[in-house]
Amino acid sequence: MRRKFSAVEHRSLLTGAILQFKLALAARFLAGDHGFEFPYLAGYSWGKHTQNAEQLSLSKAQEELAGSILEHTATYILVLQVDRDLQDLIPDRFQNPDSNLKAAAGIARLARNAFAHNPLAPTWEFQPEAANKIFHVSEILTLHTAGLDGKPVERTDYGGPLALLALAEFIMARITQ
Fold first, then answer.
1. Of 70, 73, 85, 92, which has the fewest Cβ atoms less than 10 A away?
2. Residue 3, pLDDT score
3. Tens digit of each residue's pLDDT, the chain (177 residues)
4. Among 115, 138, 114, which Cα is nearest to 125's?
5. How far apart are CA 18 and CA 10, in angstroms?
6. Following DSSP, what letter does each residue of the chain receive, concatenated?
7. Sequence-distant (≥ 6) Cβ neighbours of residue 57 within 8 angstroms
8. HSE value, Cβ hemisphere, 13 Å, CA-based, for 29
9. How far apart, in whole angstroms, are the C-alpha atoms of residue 84 and residue 112?
10. What pLDDT was estimated at residue 75?
11. In the 3-class helix/strand/coil scheme, how is 107-147 assigned residue by residue?
């Protein structure tokens, strides 16, 4: 049986996802060629395992790749948490009379599904009821599903990372009412 979380717990979980997402955006930026040097650990041990600085450090190319992967996984966690919050706290979210909330629920579910099957290479997969549709959350983001089914998820499909952040903040405001 799945544990039920209170609205307060959901706010805390969504806050954690938002914080992780913001940190991932910063790390992705810093991992680029912006003159930033990551302060790698000189060594680390946990239980019977130990690694030194050489084993723990990344090259600049690896930092860029890892920064991109970190943003991908933080995006997945963010949309997954938004979807879970809506599922648990908003009865009949896909039929809600508030068109913005209904669209947000649709976007969160579609993005969650895209990432769920392959978080590092998400692909849009739409059921007939979501194909060739427009999901619009006023002044936050619009997702046009026409032509996207079976294609890799691109940041431009949903308006980019700041649009997802705004969507999460919109949901945070709704679940704290």
1. 92
2. 86
3. 888 899 999 999 999 999 999 999 999 999 977 788 999 999 999 999 999 999 999 999 999 999 999 999 999 999 999 999 999 999 899 999 999 999 999 999 999 999 998 889 999 999 998 999 999 999 999 999 999 999 999 999 999 999 999 999 999 998 876
4. 114
5. 12
6. -PPP--HHHHHHHHHHHHHHHHHHHHHHHHHSSSS------SEEEETTEEEEHHHH---HHHHHHHHHHHHHHHHHHHHHHHHHHHHHHSTTGGG-SSHHHHHHHHHHHHHHHHHHT-TTS-B----TTTTT-EEEETTTEEEE-TTTTTSBP-GGGTT-HHHHHHHHHHHHHHHT-
7. 38, 40
8. 7
9. 10
10. 96
11. HHHHHHHHHHCCCCCCECCCCCCCCCCEEEECCCEEEECCC
Nearest to 152 by CA among 114, 108, 104: 114
Tokens 């980019």 found at: 160
